[in-house]
Amino acid sequence: MTYSYRALAAATMLSLATLAPMSVASAADMAPFPVKAKPIIDVPFFLVNDNRVTFAYQFDGADPGVTKKTAKQVYAFTHFDIWAYGTNFFTIGLEKADHASPANPCAGLPGSPTGCEGATEIYGLIRSTFGFNEMFSTKSFSYGPLRNVSLVVGADGSTENRFFSASKRDVVAGLQFAFDLPYKGFFNVNPLFYYEFANRSTFTQCGLFPGAIPGVNCNSDGNRKFDPTWAVEMNYYMDLGFLPPSLQYFAISGRAGFYGPKGGENGQIVGTATKTELNAEPIRLTFDASKAIWGEKYTHNVDVWVAYRLWRNKFGLDEKASAACTVLAAGSCREDSLYSGITVKF
């Protein structure tokens, strides 16, 4: 990053030189000896540009208020880039549940499948960082294993065609502390401000239950607005470089997100208080299939992986007190699942 930043700055200064009254060629013509102008360094805008597609299978997913067990097919696209001042990460995915979590409309009540098609959820996430070392052209924010401190901003969104028709929108902002790990690894910790400003739910819409009073125990359109809260997001990656050369095709990675209580589960109307949510994939074991088959040149072009996924108080719902978790579908706000897939770089 430091060399690339200097190269980019040099290229910028050379470009600004063309604004001077005399061109480089004219100056060379007037010189008393032959002058050969140095070529401008061609620096790409993206120092790293990585795009991947994934197909995965989750064996034991859960959908609050619907079912505590549903298998899901997952299709996802992810993009990651590094530029002069930071990074950008973007992912969009589609989850297709089995019949245990039916799509709407479906005959019967939620959690009582009648052969209806499984529900589909589309979700997206973006995170961008702006490194303090890069922005201020310094190394002051590096010390020991600490590689950098960055400003991080982002947003999340999702929509689904289940009975509850959730449609989530949130924004985040905070800091990222990036640490180095052995064997080309990293560990990032992001303390964040989190604001879920919209999340629709049919369950809170007036008319679903008799005697509902708008603004008191129901929302006229089902739209909920939550209180701002705190969050901490973490992720890590490390090659298993201590293995013998014949086995150096493996890596481990993981992530975890903690999201603080955000008010009542029904937003502006009376409801059970939300709890701290934990959404994590603490361990993923990745096998670099392309490197094993085609050699070092194709490192991580094709990855096969297996992971463990857990989710506590899913969507912030209190898994021990919320009616969605205890009455409508007991155990549906807690997820423990094996998760496996294949990721291809292009």
In a few lines, what is going on in this structure?
The protein is mainly beta. It has helices at residues 2-17, 24-30, 132-135, 289-294, 323-328; strands at 48-63, 67-83, 86-97, 120-131, 146-160, 167-181, 185-200, 229-239, 250-259, 277-288, 302-312, 335-345.
The structure class reads: mainly beta
The CATH homologous superfamily of the largest domain corresponds to Nucleoside-specific channel-forming protein, Tsx-like
What portion of residues belong to β-strands?
Answer: over 45%
The CATH top-level class label of the largest domain: Mainly Beta
Total DSSP helices: 5
Instruction: Note poorly predicted spans.
Output: 1-36
Strand order in space, largest sheet: 1-2-3-4-5-6-7-8-9-10-11-12
Radius of gyration from CA coordinates: 25 Å
Distance between the termini: 23 Å
CATH architecture of the largest domain: Beta Barrel
What's the helix-strand series?
HHEEEEHEEEEEEHEHE
Number of distinct beta strands:
12
Determine the fraction of residues in helical runs and give it as a percent range: 10-25%
Averaging pLDDT over every residue, what do you get? 87
